[in-house]
Design goal:
16 helices; about 400 residues
Length: about 400
């Protein structure tokens, strides 16, 4: 089968991109012909398809009146991406088009080209952008569902994406346009949801139930297993407000015998470092960005992975990678996390944002004998084998592709 993946980024900036690269590699190993359409960027991984990639704009800063106007137009309707999609289809004649995150950088302009081609199309919902202008259903430090029912101007009122009025207005306009035309719903045959929570949330927000299918994120079981003997807890992820790291820092600061290592960067990094210093938390160490291929020992020796999210966490890749190594997980009881971790079996689930609850959970975990913690890790590893394996994921995905039939040229 000839598969065309479409994602706005082709570096390794986040969980969606990590999944995309792993998926493409594994599909090629199964005998599929795999291609991709994305944007140009210096940190992209190499691709034989990069001659078709389009301009990547920086929407985070102003670059002058003319360029900002060009970016605003592309945000709503990217003509370059539309032409690239048409050219890519003509060059490769894919049997299936698999969309990932295309919003803003590629825009809904490519959807009409896909519909006209007659090629079956699926989309993995890595986040909530199908329903929410800011992807997260999280703003002003809390879960937010104000836009439900088409009230997208709430994104302007609450500055949900950027500090500027114009940026948030563009996001609201783009969301209103795609919903008014049902651009995604008319193009995509199946929306692949990595958690049952996502299935339920999209149905609740009015997406067609018949097009929503559960396909859980996968991970590969590691040959090397966690030893849990490093004497520290590990947070690995983006340092942004919805990840709840402030709650974690405040809780750990109360437990001087608990060491915490924080691997990752993001917009909250400077503030969180200042917070740890203000609290006198010398037991918290910020490691910065750790490359995926260099963090194996860091994960192996951790006592547990901590995931203190305060938003609707969809299906955490970090949690799956911990499970793959037999590492227990202490996670917030929110979003899809309870589908990954079984409380008191493969880890602990804690009330999101509750400092006292997190302090208590961490103290209780550290008081467990090492053998009990290792049993938790092994339970997590076994759960991954049974529910979140790559083999099961690829098999189900092939079945979804096959169920949609062949393009009109076959």
């Amino acid at each position: 089968m000839r598969i065309l993946h479409v994602n706005k980024f082709f570096d390794l900036r986040g969980g969606a991109e990590t999944y995309l690269h792993d998926l493409m590699t594994r599909q090629a190993a199964r005998g599929h012909e795999v291609h991709v359409l994305s944007t140009r960027f210096a940190q992209n991984l190499p691709s034989p398809d990069e001659h078709l990639f389009v301009t990547r704009y920086d929407y985070s800063r102003s670059e002058g009146l003319v360029k900002d106007a060009r970016k605003a137009i592309s945000f709503l309707w990217n003509s370059e991406a539309r032409r690239a999609m048409r050219q890519t289809i003509a060059e490769y004649h894919p049997d299936i088009i698999h969309l990932h995150n295309i919003y803003h950088h590629l825009s809904s302009s490519i959807l009409g080209v896909i519909r006209a081609s007659g090629i079956p199309c699926v989309q993995t919902l890595h986040d909530f952008k199908l329903a929410c202008p800011n992807y997260k259903m999280f703003t002003e430090g809390a879960i937010c569902e104000r836009c439900k029912g088409g009230h997208y101007l709430q994104a302007v009122k609450h500055h949900c994406l950027w500090p500027t009025f114009s940026g948030n207005m563009l996001a609201a306009m783009e969301m209103g346009l795609t919903k008014a035309t049902q651009a995604y719903e008319r193009t995509v045959s199946v929306f692949l949801c990595p958690s049952q929570f996502m299935v339920d949330k999209m149905r609740d927000w009015g997406e067609p139930p018949s097009k929503l299918k559960l396909l859980r994120n996968p991970a590969e079981v590691s040959e090397r297993q966690a030893t849990l003997d490093g004497g520290y807890l590990l947070f690995a992820g983006r340092l942004s407000p919805e990840k709840g790291v402030e709650t974690l820092i405040r809780a750990v600061a109360r437990i001087p015998e608990c060491n915490l290592k924080i691997a990752g960067t993001g917009p909250e990094e400077a503030r969180l470092k200042q917070l740890a210093e203000m609290l006198g938390a010398r037991n918290i160490l910020f490691l910065g960005f750790i490359r995926r291929d260099r963090n194996l020992e860091l994960w192996e020796k951790a006592q547990a992975l901590v995931m203190p999210s305060i938003w609707h966490e969809n299906a955490s890749i970090s949690v799956l990678e911990a499970m793959a190594q037999g590492l227990p997980v202490i996670a917030s009881r929110t979003g899809g996390l309870p589908e990954q971790i079984e409380h008191q079996i493969s880890g602990l689930l804690v009330a999101p944002g509750d400092i006292d609850a997190w302090e208590s959970a961490i103290r209780n975990f550290l008081a467990l004998p090492l053998d009990w913690r290792k049993q938790m890790g092994q339970a997590a590893r076994q759960r991954l084998l049974e529910i979140f394996s790559w083999e099961k994921h690829l098999q189900l995905l092939d079945e979804v592709y096959a169920s949609l039939g062949k393009p009109k040229w076959h």
